[in-house]
Amino acid sequence: MCAAVASRVAPVARGAHVLPRGRTQGRAWLLGDRERMALFLHVASARVPADPEAIADPKRVMVDLAAHSRRTDIRLDMVPRQGSGRSEGPAYTSRLIEYVSDVRDGWRPHIAAASCDSLRRCLHCLDGLVEQGGL
User: Three-state SS across 37-96?
Assistant: First the structure.
């Protein structure tokens, strides 16, 4: 999933590649684009948290959002089956890659940066490096 996130952040930074510091931070960045996350998961946008970086477990939030999806395939793919002992469904990662990779209707890093200060700072830093010729 990190590579998929990097591929979407990279065009924003004019060719630079970036990976979030950890999976938790990367997942928070994905939640930062509330409108597109809600559309992708087929849930009300009001369900998507407004301050994703304040969430202790963004993965749990995404799975919980998927559990409320109006689409059966999203629920089957992203939500763990009861009694499985897993924290996510069988196609959780594939679905997030799909969300990040969809250039037309998927994740928008510049929008997510408005609610994810760490992403905003990262993009700003990368823009500075590109301007200086460092990337």
Answer: HHHHHCCCHHHCCCCHHHCCCHHHHHHHHHHCCCCHHHHHHHCCCCCCCCCCCCCHHHHH
**Of 46, 41, 11, nearest in space to 123 by CA:** 11
Q: Would the pTM count as exceeding 0.85?
A: no
Contact 97, 1 (CB under 8 A): yes
Question: Among residues of the chain, what percentage have pLDDT more than 90?
Answer: 70
Q: 101: Cβ–Cβ under 8 A, 6 or more apart, which residues?
A: 4, 7, 8
Contact 53, 117 (CB under 8 A): yes
- Other CB atoms within a 10 A radius of the CB of residue 83 amount to 6
Are the beta carbons of 62 and 31 closer than 8 angstroms? Answer: yes
